[in-house]
Amino acid sequence: MALYPVSAKTVAKASDFVYKETKKNVAGSPSAAPQTSPVPRRSTRLFRSIKRKIENVVQHRVFSDDSVAPHNVFVHYGTRRMKPRRFLGDVLTKYSRKIWAMMDKDFTEAIQKIGRI
Predict the structure, then answer these.
(1) Are 48 and 69 in contact, with CB atoms under 8 Å apart?
(2) Given CB 3.0 to 4.6 Å as the disulfide criterion, which of 8, 47, 48, 92 pairs with 57?
(3) Is the separation of the CB atoms in 85 and 75 below 8 Å?
(4) Against a cut of 0.70, is the pTM above it?
(5) What is the pLDDT of residues 7-22, one digit of tens each?
(6) 30 near 80, Cβ under 8 Å?
(7) Quick check: 68 and 55 in contact, CB under 8 A?
(8) What is the 3-state secondary structure (H, E, C) of the chain?
(9) What contacts 104, CB < 8 A, 6 or more positions away?
């Protein structure tokens, strides 16, 4: 049970990181070239659609809300005429090692504090 608070803190920190980086990916300027990343901002709907939901203390979801930006799936996965701009998937691909390293560091420190390593 000594690791539960650490896991809750680490999951919150990781989901906050993913949330912020995803918001950066959809916060492009209105004058940005089309079909680039960060996604050019034609309106704020896609930016406002990025949400973080806490299911429980160790399970968080970062997602794009369809009710705010129904076009999110077309931007993320592309169409036959528009290449995909994976605003969420790219964050996970690019930073997965950093996220795992952050979690590993937090758990190692917690285990060392209770004298197991």
Answers:
(1) yes
(2) 8
(3) yes
(4) yes
(5) 888 899 999 999 999 9
(6) no
(7) no
(8) CCCHHHHHHHHHHHHHHHHHHHHHHCCCCCCCCCCCCCCCCCCCHHHHHEEEEEEECCEEEEEECCCCCCCHHHHHHCCCCCCCCCCCHHHHHHHHHHHHHHHHHHHHHHHHHCCCC
(9) none
